[in-house]
Design a protein that fits this description.
The protein is an alpha/beta fold and 201 residues long. It is built from seven helices and five strands; from the N terminus they run H-E-H-E-H-H-H-E-H-E-H-E. A five-stranded parallel sheet has the order 4-3-2-1-5, sandwiched between helices.
Length: 201
């Protein structure tokens, strides 16, 4: 039954069809699709990308992170290692006391130089446990954390030292291994947000 409109009543507005993609030219459609694909690339994690944040200053934990990083790199994955706070000591190759205040010198003296001088998270026993672990690894021909770090760099792993950690602890870039980046948390977040696998160690 048809609806009758009373005199003086305004006729309801009929919704107008919104312009659809069919109204665009082929070139415009391709341009829109390319924009959508680029947006997906920026927001979708890449299953072939791995980002690890190394926070711990314990040798066995650093070793685990380096094993994962080098294994992923050997599989052709894009790997980023971000070292911060106590984990930054994995990258230390030497000590430089000149130009530092007393607190910075104390931190430098009390923190290990390289993964090989770090303690372990369990049964460290004033360093006896760490030495025992290293000897057991050597007896079984297992590469050390220091060797894995070199292998990671040679395998194309992106290695980043946290700039804020260097500033707070008074660590100079010259104390670290060569050919690494110094960047802030934004670089870590940019890499982590695009990674299919992200680990905090």
């Amino acid at each position: 039954m048809a609806t009758q409109i009373q005199p003086g009543t305004e006729r309801p507005e009929v919704p107008r069809a919104q312009p659809g993609i069919e109204q665009f030219t082929l070139e415009q459609r391709i341009a829109l699709l390319e924009q959508e694909l680029e947006q997906l690339r920026r927001t979708t994690p890449d299953a072939n990308k791995v980002t690890l944040l190394i926070f711990s200053g314990e040798q066995d934990k650093a070793l685990a992170g380096l094993v994962i990083a080098t294994t992923a790199a050997s599989l052709g994955m894009d790997v980023t290692l971000f070292f911060t706070f106590w984990g930054i000591n994995v990258l230390k190759q030497k000590r430089v006391y000149s130009g530092k205040d007393i607190k910075e010198k104390m931190i430098d003296f009390m923190t290990p130089k390289g993964a090989g001088h770090m303690g372990v998270s369990q049964m460290n026993m004033l360093g006896v446990g760490a030495n025992m672990l290293q000897q057991m690894m050597k007896d079984k021909n297992v590469v050390s954390a220091d060797e894995l770090l070199v292998l990671a760099r040679e395998s194309g792993v992106r290695i980043i030292a946290c700039s804020m950690t260097l500033q707070v602890m008074g660590i100079k870039a010259e104390e670290l291994m060569n050919d690494i980046e110094v960047a802030g948390a934004a670089s870590y977040l940019e890499s982590a947000s695009r990674s299919g696998c992200t680990l905090f160690i």
